[in-house]
Amino acid sequence: MSRQLGFIVRRLLLTIPMLFVMSIVVFLIIRLVPGDPVRTMLGFRATDANVAELRHRLGLDQSLLDQYLSWAGALLRGDLGKDIVSHASLAQLLAQRLPVTFELTGLSMLLAVLVGVPLGVRAATGGRWIRRLTEGFVVIGISVPDFWLGIVLVLIFAGTLMILPPSGYVPFATDPVGNLRYMVLPVLTLATGEAAYILRTTRGALGSVMSRPFITFLRAKGISPRRIVFGHALRNAGPSIVTVIGIQVGVLLGGAIIIETMFALPGVGRLVVTGINQRNYPTVQVGILAIATIFIVVSLITDLIVAWLDPRVADGAGT
Amino acid sequence: MTETASTPIAGGKIESHRHSPKRLMLVGGGILVLLALIAIAAPLIAPHDPEAVEVHRVLGAPSLQHPFGSDVLGRDVLSRVIYALRASLMVSVSAVLASLILAVPLGLAAGYFGRWVDSTISRTLDLILVFPAMLLAVTFIAILGPGSVIAAIAIAVIYLPILARVMRTSTLIVSRNDYIAGSRARGASHLRVLATHVAPNAFGPVIVQASVLSAFALQLEAGLSFLGLGTQPPTPSLGGMLADGREVLIQAPWVEIFPGLAIVVAVLGFTFLGEGLRRAFDPRGVAE
């Protein structure tokens, strides 16, 4: 148990340098822009006074170290700065945008796990036809780009059947049913490829466990195939499946950038894309910072779950 | 997108034994050669000027004269798809090639010399792998600004650690062979051993990986152009066409369907080629 605790502490401590390095990268975004970032932001018609004013407001006239310290210090106090186009507080903007991205990626991952894991189990233990069917799903799910799938889904459900809206958003608090109706197509689009990955991983992990000698032994003891799969094999395949799910959250967050733009969902991804096109660097920084932080936290949680499922990980032996 | 594949699981790869590696390679390679020829010969085969705006043909349905219909500005969709293949293939293939050119020597050095050379190269490249590909690409473009060259560089950087890692692993396996020690014992220099014995034998898996990654690069490029961060208008790109047609998707689906299909076909081409190559040249399953 003390080893477990040691692992948890070490893993938590590892998160600090990761967040630190990430914050430096995000901090540097605006400083690495070729030429004068302030002039790029304001456009050619900006006066020298305007440029000097914004440069001062962003702290770009100080030394790099001072800039980082005051920027990071403000972040830790929850002061994310202001959007330079709308002058809105970025903390407020983020508070509006984050729930959308959380809902989209959370529901997509939930659906992908609910579809992928059971199908993966069936694919690893079932007969030939189920293996062929699932293989077909894997090939299609992985090769079809998600935005193309989105187009097809919109054409079917919004264009032909007219049972779902093609794009748009209402907050869950205002209209829960309407919110879910808007979410169906984006979630299906994002979840399909994900489900294929999770299916493939589950099938692979379970398949390799099923060929281990202890499974043969359990069979010889006369234990029912159901109990072997769910009581023993899945328990052993669990850590690999959870690891992949954790990594795939990152892929979903990346995919959400495209899907949010495609379905006009006001999430963090769309905020970043609009920010880049408007040269609105402070907003881009905050958006990327938010997505990267979510990803770092999810990796942390994933590693802790894996260590809990498989105590050997904490011993440093791993699976 | 490819990170999942890093779990070293035998059943993790596409497993349909009914198709021989040769047939997969032929189908994949055939699709790609055809698409490449279409892209190269675009000016000769495109029936119309891809940028010619015809007001009276705005959102025209597919017809004999315009088999794929016409878009919001009345431009011929077929001609635009043909030209867009150029940009999309060019960006994704050159990105993967650039990545390959950097990754091969790095992976060779890391796998062959080991110790501090290995840990320096591997740890540095691992930093890139920490973050999801799409987020990295967007961050990169946030700094350098949108454009097809920047998109290609971003894609190349993202795939560098994956390709280098595959090259490192296969170099490690090859370097353990007795003929490498023998060659060294006969007095061959490290460079000579690497060039004549290690590299040629360690090359298979990294080629397989490059082919698989090209499929992802194509999707990434299309995604970036869709967001307006990759290839810029007026140059037609498959992702950019999908963005143009998004607003009129339900009235004029052909504006979206055909560029989308072109992406799907090209992605399948790379995937089939990669799977075929994998079975032929990567029996140990080094590529991810």
Q: What features would you describe in this structure?
A:
Chain B: It comes from Kaistia soli DSM 19436. Chain B: It is a multi-pass membrane protein. Chain B: This is Peptide/nickel transport system permease protein. The complex is a heterodimer of chains A (319) and B (288). Chain A is built from 13 helices and no strands. By secondary structure, chain A is an all-alpha fold. Chain A folds into two domains: 92 residues, no CATH class; 182 residues, MetI-like (MetI-like fold, Orthogonal Bundle). Chain B has one domain: MetI-like fold, CATH 1.10.3720.10. In chain B, α1 crosses α3, α1 crosses α10 and α9 packs antiparallel against α10.
| Structure classification of chain A | mainly alpha
Largest interface: A-B, 61 and 49 residues
Order of helices and strands of chain B: HHHHHHHHHH
How would you sum up the global shape of chain A? globular
> How many strand elements of chain A?
0
Spatial separation of the terminal alpha carbons of chain A? 18 Å
What is the C-alpha radius of gyration of chain B, as a whole number of Å? 22 Å
Strand content of chain B: under 5%
Uncertain spans of chain A: none
N- to C-terminal distance of chain B: 11 Å
Largest sheet of chain B: none
Total domains of chain A, how many? 2
Mean pLDDT of chain A: 85
Domain ABC transmembrane type-1 (chain B): 85-274
GO cellular component, one term (chain B): plasma membrane
Keywords (chain B): Cell membrane, Membrane, Transmembrane, Transmembrane helix, Transport
Membrane topology (chain B): Multi-pass membrane protein
